[in-house]
Every structure is written in C-alpha cells, then in structure tokens.
Amino acid sequence: MGGPFNVVRFAKSVFAVVLVGASLFIDGPVVVDAQAGDLCDSASTEQFSDVAPGDYGARYILCMKELGLSLGREDGSYGPDAILTRAQMASFLVRLWRDVLDRQCPEGEAPFTDAADGTPHAGNIDCIYNLGITQGVTATTFGPASTLKASQISRFLLRTFEKVGGSCPDRLAELDEAVSCLQGFNVIPNPEEGSSQEPVTRAQMAVYMVGLWHNIAGRGLPPAPPELGADPSTDDPARTRSDGALLVIAVLESLRGSPEQRTGYDRDLFVHWSDVDGDGCDTRREVLIRDSRVESVLDQNRTCWVDSGLWYSHYDGEWVQDPSSLDIDHLVPLAEAWDSGAHAWSPEQREAFANDEGALVAVTARSNRSKGAADPPDWMPPNSDFTCPYVAGWVATKARWDLSVDRRESEFLRGMLSGECAGATLDIRTPVLAFPVLRVPELGTPELGSAGDPTTTTVSGGIPPDPGNSRNCSDFSTQAEAQEWFDTYFPHYGDVARLDGDGDGEACESLP
Fold first, then answer.
1. Which is more confidently placed, 358 or 390?
2. How far, in Å, CA of 494 to CA of 326, rounded?
3. Biggest CA pair distance of the chain
C-alpha cells in the first residue's frame, strides 16, 4: 500500500480548522516533530495486553487508551488485527465527539431496526445518524456487524471533521475530497489506502482517530501516519505484512472470549440461500459457479441452475462433477455462530452471515454431514492438507463477524497455531475462502471413467445399494423422515429421488 503515487499535496497553509466550540482558528497547522514519541503528552506506557511497542500503530493505540477513545476488551486486550465493524466505528466516533470534545448527541430518530435499544452500540449508532454522519445501509437497517472498507471510513472521518467546523477544498466526488483532505492532515498515509476497498483493522482505525483528534483538538499536524507493514521497528514483521497478510494467531488473540449460548437456536432464523445481489443466482449457485475448476454448465431452461462442473472438496480431498453431490458448508456453522454472538443479531444480520460467500465452501455432502455443527476441538477435516487453511478460515470468519470464542475452542486453535500451523497467515483483502487463498491440487488425473472418476464420491464398505428414483415426498409422514432417507443415499448417489427441489440439502421442505 505504500507504493509511489502522483498526487498534488495541498499546501498546509491553505487549511483553516475552525473549532466551533473553542472559537479557535488555526491558520497553517504547526507541524509536530515526526519523531515525537508520545502523541498524547502522557507519561503512561501501560499498553493493552495484545499490543507490543513495535507493533503497527502501537503509539496510536496507546493514545486511544489514554484519551478514552477505546476501552479495550474485558480481558485487557485491544484486538489490533480484528476487522472493524460498523458498530465499532460508531462508538469510536461518538467517544471522540461526546467524551473527548465534550459535545452533545442531538435528539432525533432511531430508525434502524437492527440497532434497537438494548443492542450493543445502539445509542452511538443513533448519535451518528442524527449528526448526519451516516444514513445507514437502508432506511431501516444499519448493519452493525458488517465490516467497513477504507473508502467508507474516509467518508465518515471527513463528515466528522466537517461537523466540528473543519473545511476542505471542494471536489466533485466526496471520496476524492476526503482522501485529499485526510492525507493533507496526516490522518491517512496515502491515497491508495484511503480510497481502497480493503477492510479496515482496529489498529488502522486507531491511527485515523488519533490523527483526526490531533488536528481538531488544536494540537496541529501530527507526525506522518505509519503505512501498514512499513514500521521498521516491528520485531515480528509477519504479524502485519505489507501484502495484507496477518498471522492467524494474532487475529485469534484479538477475538472476544465468552462462553457459548445455544438457548433459542433455530436454523430457520438464518435465512438462506438468498439472491443477495439480485442477479437471479442464489448464494448456493454463486458458490458452485465460483468454486468450479472448469466452466460450469448451466441449464438453459432454468435461471442459474448449475447442471455440471468440476469441484474439489477440501474437507475430504474428493473431486466431484455432479453438483447435487455437494453441500455448501458454512465454515463456522450457523449454530456455532448463534452460540458465539449471532443470538443478539437482527434477522438482517443473520441473513447476511448465512449468505456470506467469503465464509462458504462447496464440499461433499458426506463430509459436511459428518461435521454437523461441531467446532474445531470436535471436528477437523479428514484431508490433512486442509488442516491449516481450515483453522485460518475459522478464525478469519469469527474476526470478520466479531464472533466470540470459548475457552476450549481458543485453547485448541492456539495449540494448532503454535504447532503444526505455526506461521499460518490470512489475507484481510481476500474473501476468507475464495480462491486463490486455498491451495487446490492440479487437475491432472483422474480422468473421467477411471477408478478415480470425479463424478462420484466413494467410500469403502457399508455403501447401501442405489435406491433409484423410488420415493416421492408423499411417501413420508414428516420432513425429518424424508431427511433421514435422503441423508442415507445422498452422499453416495446424489438426489436420485429428486426430493431436494431447490438444491439446498433439505429434503421435502413442504412436509411438517
């Protein structure tokens, strides 16, 4: 992100920051010594438990703590590598506005059904809405658990800056104005970062927040902000690398620890598969098309119906040609997500999670059914080549959705990441499980019709004979009875009786 770029830097003398509350004007901000060791003039060096002095943004995170902009987590950590959510962004901005700048949140509407009273960050979300900093995702939803891209953060920071009386030279596009202004004030390091579509970490947000505070609190221009992965004092340069890769164990340490809560779980609370982008393809078929190693063949008589392709099932290392033999697995199962925080989400958030293509993978039905709702201490993919990618994907999904980990789960994952998966990384700029993050064997052999024919998945012993198209849904009294029959034969022969009309793995859904 720190590559060369051509940009006209605004002369700093043209900026005038108007601090309305203090009636203070700053013409030509005073440049602070770029080597200054303490942004906040504080003698304290007590850092969060998961932030070391040489880490990216460590001085800024310490300043956040001293200012009260971040309270940290219950276990004394900050979570520098965790992906920032929209709800967390709201709380950071409101603490700056209300607690540091001593301004009031205006009275007004509370239109977001997914940020109702009693939900985390609800009051802060209402505050930035009534300040005019955000209008939400829709007129009635805010998307508290959704991640934020750098380009979105740039706009929010600009609007906050303008709300305290700051002004920037007008540009045709708000993002262009935000990036130029924030770079000129040393809030962001370069235009590429400020305008990118990459998600923002909590460490990056600390850099931005302290830089913004430095300008609007009458302290003048802060030192030039660090570029991600460019801090030469870092003892562990792989913790946050210039290519965006993060050590998985560092991301794991940023997750909240909390006991699981299963009470009230129902799979139907997570609506799937949805046509999220309105292109006629639901999420299941989007993933099938994405993950096929050859161009998928679509049924011309049905909208986005995948007839065939070639898939590699990472869980068990099987090649599959028939899409009806595949399940689309939630890497972090829906029940596990409920246990880990989704019980407090709105229906819209749960639907978004259930259809998050970055956390879905096409695998054989047999391997998916063997996994069920188990977490890593109880189930790991039998394909050993997928052990470490699976651990990384699990941690990345939990960080992406701000889900917690329980003690047993955390200890197991930490053991894996300190042992056979030591040094494993994930890339915050790439969907969790989309190619090319995962290594897939070259196609090569087997050839069709050979003993390793990828049209089917085979197991040794105990295979029931093919029942053929011998049952209809009317032959079963309940959906559970139909599902049991379906699960018996589907792993070996696919949906031979055509009980699963929409291809979602649920047989005879019309039955009681």
1. 390
2. 8
3. 84
